[in-house]
Amino acid sequence: MAPELTSDNEAKGSYDAGSVLPLATSVDGRTFSFQASLDDLPFQLGGYVVQIAGDETWLGQILTLEVGLIEVSSSASSPGPELLTVRRVAAAVGTGSVLGNGRPFHDVRLAPATATQVNDWQKAAWSNGPALEVGQFANLTGVPALIDPEGFDRHTFLCGQSGSGKTYSLGVILEHLLVDTELRVLVLDPNSDFVRLGTVRGGSEGPMTQAYRDVASSIEVLRSESEGGLPLRIRVSELSSSARAAMLQLDPVNDREEYAALAELLEHDEGGRPLIGGIGELLASELPGARQLGLRAANLGVLDWKIWERGAGGSIHTRLLADDWRCLVVDLGSLDTPEEQAVIAESVLDTLWRHRRDRRPVLIVIDEAHNVCPQNPELAMVALATRHAIQIAAEGRKFGLHLLVSTQRPQKVHDNVLSQCDNLVLMRMNSAADLAHLVESFSFVPPSIFDEARHFRLGEALIAGKVSPHPTLVRFGARISEEGGADVKR
């Protein structure tokens, strides 16, 4: 498009780059290209503009912004024929998205959108359903950032480097889901960051806080008995045959006799009870093959694990299948060894997958997912957990199993989990390799918006996907519950 000249410049027959008018053109009513002066540039990447054409206005979002050269023409009066000159000058150029129902337009004026204009548009956009107010727009003061709770019926990927506020912000999302929806939530918590999710912070006030107090009592924390809370236990008979073999490092071919003996020992008698009640009974049992398996378990340290139910009653398997819980926090961080954490994580994912046809919707939050479903699992038990995470990612939605996968290391999470995520919450990320990996996985977000993640401040994020009608830059609000790592200052 050719820029207009001010009347003063036309009269002088000269051209000043600062007089490039902000103009936009759209051929489809959905996207637009624009130009603007570089002097006191009022627009910013990810920011909002209004396109003014007579009495009509459209709201738009800037998705690319860079310096470019445009051709301008000017005329000069002289005693002879009028002279027309064309020159190339530097200007801000870019593209954007029309928000809402637009129509094609040409050379309409652009202006920065006000907080009121964006807020009015957002209210209209959410008029047909509820929204979760998780903070404010990062680039427009006073506009609440809203996300769609129904968008969590798609898998979500949340990532940010250490110190970006990832854990804190995930807590904000979970609080709003617990208050404003009926979705059940299960958290695999490897760092004990969410064990106080049911405790309201001192000094927190307001309607949201009161509403959260009403649901906080329904949050259960399962953890090692030495850490308090509900004990985190499991019975060996509740593990799948593959998990039992992985636990004892048994190969079904190379160790076929011990593998078969373990399967027989865990068969149930006529009363429905396993022949071996617990892993600790192997050494004392006189049943064929039991002592050899007991020695193997002892040598591997399996007999000393805290996770065994040991006849005390209650297990995580039983709790998962109950109907009376709203939020379960599985405190993997309270366990002593990576092997125990892997057993519990695998058992949780396996149980949910095996009972998927019960169709009980649940949001499965996998924090530090690069440890639970890594790209290259080293432990056999982690490989099993990864396999179940992949199954849930690929087919779980139709059974009501939804993932929220959180990590500092996007490239370390298995590709078959990441590729199934339709929502993105991206916090500060300086790694060029990680950003390039995300650009490839979330192609619906312009690469230029990804680049903004390098400059995010604490608690700021890009949210895109079904949870947001357009890529939104937000600053998360304050937590209501106590958190394990309070790195976002308020």
Describe this protein's structure.
The chain is an alpha/beta fold. The chain has 14 helices and 18 strands. The chain has helices at 7-12, 115-125, 166-180, 207-216, 241-247, 256-265, 290-299, 316-320, 338-354, 369-372, 380-395, 415-418, 432-441, 447-451; strands at 23-26, 31-36, 48-53, 56-76, 83-99, 105-112, 132-137, 144-147, 155-159, 184-189, 219-223, 230-231, 327-331, 362-366, 401-407, 421-426, 460-464, 472-476. Helix 3 (166-180) crosses helix 4 and helix 9 packs parallel to helix 11 (380-395). 43% of the residues are buried.
Q: What gyration radius follows from the Cα positions, in whole Å?
A: 29 Å
Approximately how much helix is present in the residues?
25-40%
Largest sheet: 12 strands, mixed
User: What is the average of the pLDDT values?
Assistant: 86
Number of E-type strands: 18
